[in-house]
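Model it.
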Amino acid sequence: MSGIKDVAREAGVSIATVSRALRGLPRVSEETRERVLAAAARMEYVASPNAASLASGQTRTVGVVVPNVTRWFFGSVIHGAEELLRTEGYDVLLYDITGEPAARDRLFSTYLLRKRVDAVMVLALRPTPEEVALLARIGSPTVVVGGHVPEWPSVRIDDVLAASTAVQHLIDLGHTRIAHIGGTPDPEHAGLEFSTPGDRLRGYRQTMAGAGLPIDSAWEVTGDFTAHGGLSACRALLEAATLPTAVFAASDEMAIGATHAFRAAGLRVPEDISVIGIDDHELSEFFELTTVAQPAHDLGSLGARILLDALVGVHHEPASLVLPTVLIPRRSTAPLG
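Modeled.
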């Protein structure tokens, strides 16, 4: 099996130059880099990642802390980040805590302290002051995607504005009885809550109040940001004394579940009841769902770029990027008949 010395001899350069060329480091001419890569390919030489890590002090790995990797939003963000990181020679190490407080505690108190990653991307979680202090002590660049932490750079959307856009669309169509399907923190899982559910609920309430519209307490139901949760939430709405004429779901998955529940109950969407979501989930067009689209893939890509720049000492302003959302009208909403 060929080694780095063999590649250096074949390319006519030093071992240090081979190492720098294969790792994509500067101070190697393009001609020399191509000669080294060609020699390595001919000899089927693959550099040891462990050896490279020991030599450079870097792992060429970015850790991504995700609450639940199976959810559409998180998967889309990770895809956007991984695409960019891969082209820059970085691997992604996923830490999926899946709503388990003990797993989160182990992650922040032990795993990330072992320096297995060069940088950390936190998706949507609201870190505690202790967790912020731990990562600050490690010194690894950190970015939050889908949330905001004053101590770290972040990439997100304005969830209050996105919710307001959705509700205002229903109001503009003439609806006054508008329900909300969202998510609430589980009191048994303190510290695992996200800012998104509360922000979208606030956008709903502020827009309703601004239009002088009342909110029936029976119209605010929890759907857990899943299609099944949206289905269950709508069954509760169907038992309300006064049925709403429109529903704002804080995610497309809940909106899809709600649409199924209404149709199963014999209601027509949108003739009898309008439904709108947030996300522009990959299935939204299939279900003809009106939605407020958020650029989940771009959120991940921009978060990764911030980390890559920070690793080479480049820091951008503003530290917090807020990407725009776009209303996409489809057939699930219609004027009040």
